[in-house]
Recover the amino acids of this structure.
């Protein structure tokens, strides 16, 4: 009888959980075990309240959980049983030591590799799914071969390109799957083995195979190019505000050029998320390391513009509220770094809230999915500030506020009862639309002073 292929994933986070759930759903005859030492997270994956919010995720987890999808804290057991081991652990920016603030902290990747080396008995394929600096596969290989009795390892690079909020869609129908392997017979066989899993639901022409270093670097470069488009349009948003051009019209006009394309040209309060900033800083660090300071500075400027855009947004609020927000209530609608996720990592909302609190404002935050505890932790850390309040609805946040600021593009914000909100706000009542999602002309008609991103201010009552 043909034995079941067993795969294991180290790390039950935003990538490990959804990716493995999709493989389990599409390949009922593969046994998939996701392991993580974080017992609370594993318990949530085994419950009806998954640790992350992603549209459609619960349905695919429920379909396979207990059949061929398992979540466990038994890391060693998972490693021992599996033929293919995915490494989906975090790779945050280093906080101290050489490269602090820029280089990737590879401690979790290294400890995963050491654990695999200590436990593995037979031949294993190790798949780097975490985003890592170029040449990490070499380091993993060295650790594995130096510490293991069996020594039969192949290391593949298989970076993940899913975006949060659309993870299930992206996994179901990716633009491409990228697999890099060693240019040896064993490497090619391992690449083919992994490709054959994806081939169960992804057309062959979308499964790209490359050498290891191209695959590792392509992930960093993809994120850098995406973030660069946002910083580019955000830089232009400032020019639009100064000149009377409209950033949405400019974005639309340039995006019609098929060489530019329409996606990722939406001006905003600034990009957030766990990866863009960290991956660009990591890319810049690598360039520096390899003696390319000009290339490094070029990419770093993408992050600088993003930081500037976040502060610029808060400064505009202060300026338009007559240069003082001390004691004024400001409603912050949306805290997640984008809609349809409860993830707040690097969200622009943190910077905006901190800037407004520093100005003495009373900041009232409402987000449909982010928990109060996370908002407080992100903005205040271990500190406290009575001026930070959390509301249970947009209307509650806006009541008594001098201004509303939209920081996340949640659909529910597009159709709020604005006339009612206006009634309950001191006048003049302002709206700062950090996502350009609201009906600006209608809001002016109600009487709001409206300040979108990348559009000159128009007087209320003028459409
Ligand atoms: P995460 O922090 O949500 O999850 C990582 C998990 O790994 C944690 O639960 C942690 O407990 C666990 N872990 C740490 N060491 C472990 C070990 N030795 N064994 C088993 N588990 C261990 O991180 P994430 O957002 O899923 O990101 C993981 C990687 O994927 C990062 O490199 C990130 O850059 C990359 N990535 C993330 C996204 C995204 O949308 N979040 C998309 C593409 C790529
Ligand atoms: C991003 C990439 O899109 C994924 O391909 C990649 O796998 C992932 O990073 C990763 O490596 O972690 P994600 O950060 O989840 O995915 O979400 P995006 O949709 O890329 O949005 C990132 C940020 O940019 C959000 O704050 C979003 O609001 C902002 N954004 C996006 C804009 O401000 N304007 C746009 O036009 C698009």
């Amino acid at each position: 009888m043909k034995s079941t292929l067993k795969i294991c994933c180290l790390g039950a986070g935003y990538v490990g959980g959804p990716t493995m759930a999709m493989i389990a759903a599409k390949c009922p005859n593969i046994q998939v075990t996701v392991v993580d030492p974080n017992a609370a997270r594993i318990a949530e994956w085994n419950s009806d309240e998954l640790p992350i919010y992603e549209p459609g995720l619960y349905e695919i987890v429920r379909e396979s959980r207990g059949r061929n999808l398992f979540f466990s804290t038994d890391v060693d057991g998972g490693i021992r049983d599996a033929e293919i081991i995915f490494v989906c652990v975090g790779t945050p920016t280093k906080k101290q030591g050489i490269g602090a603030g820029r280089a990737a902290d590879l401690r979790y990747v290294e400890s995963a590799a050491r654990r695999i080396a200590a436990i593995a008995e037979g031949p294993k394929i190790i798949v780097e799914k975490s985003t890592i600096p170029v040449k990490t596969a070499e380091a993993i290989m060295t650790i594995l071969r130096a510490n293991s009795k069996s020594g039969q390892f192949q290391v593949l690079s298989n970076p993940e390109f899913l975006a949060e909020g659309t993870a299930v869609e992206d996994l179901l129908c990716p633009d491409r799957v990228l697999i890099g392997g060693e240019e040896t017979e064993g490497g090619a066989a391992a690449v083919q083995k992994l490709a054959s899993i994806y081939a169960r639901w992804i057309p062959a022409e979308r499964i790209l195979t490359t050498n290891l270093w191209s695959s590792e670097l392509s992930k960093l470069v993809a994120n850098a190019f995406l973030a660069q488009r946002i910083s580019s349009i955000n830089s232009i948003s400032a020019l639009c505000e100064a000149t009377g051009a409209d950033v949405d019209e400019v974005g639309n006009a340039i995006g019609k050029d098929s060489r530019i394309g329409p996606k990722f040209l939406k001006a905003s309060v600034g990009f957030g998320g766990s990866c863009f900033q960290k991956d660009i800083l990591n890319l810049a660090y690598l360039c520096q390391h390899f003696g390319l300071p000009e290339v490094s500075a070029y990419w770093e400027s993408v992050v600088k513009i993003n930081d500037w855009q976040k502060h610029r947004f808060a400064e505009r609020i202060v300026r338009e509220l007559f240069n003082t927000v001390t004691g004024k209530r400001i409603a912050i609608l949306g805290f997640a770094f984008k809609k349809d996720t409860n993830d707040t990592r690097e969200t622009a909302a943190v910077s905006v809230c901190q800037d407004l609190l520093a100005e003495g404002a009373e900041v009232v935050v409402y987000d449909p999915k982010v928990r109060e505890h996370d908002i407080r932790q992100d903005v205040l850390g271990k500190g406290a500030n009575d001026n930070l309040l959390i509301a249970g609805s947009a209307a509650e946040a806006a009541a008594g506020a001098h201004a509303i600021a939209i920081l996340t593009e949640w659909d529910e914000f597009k159709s709020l009862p604005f006339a009612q909100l206006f009634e309950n706000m001191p006048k003049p009542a302002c709206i700062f639309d950090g996502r350009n999602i609201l009906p600006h002309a209608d809001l002016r008609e109600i009487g709001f002073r409206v300040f979108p991103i990348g559009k000159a201010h128009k007087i209320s009552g003028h459409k």
User: Anything to note?
Assistant: The chain has two domains: 5-202, 212-463. The chain is about 45% helix and 15% strand. The mean pLDDT is 95.
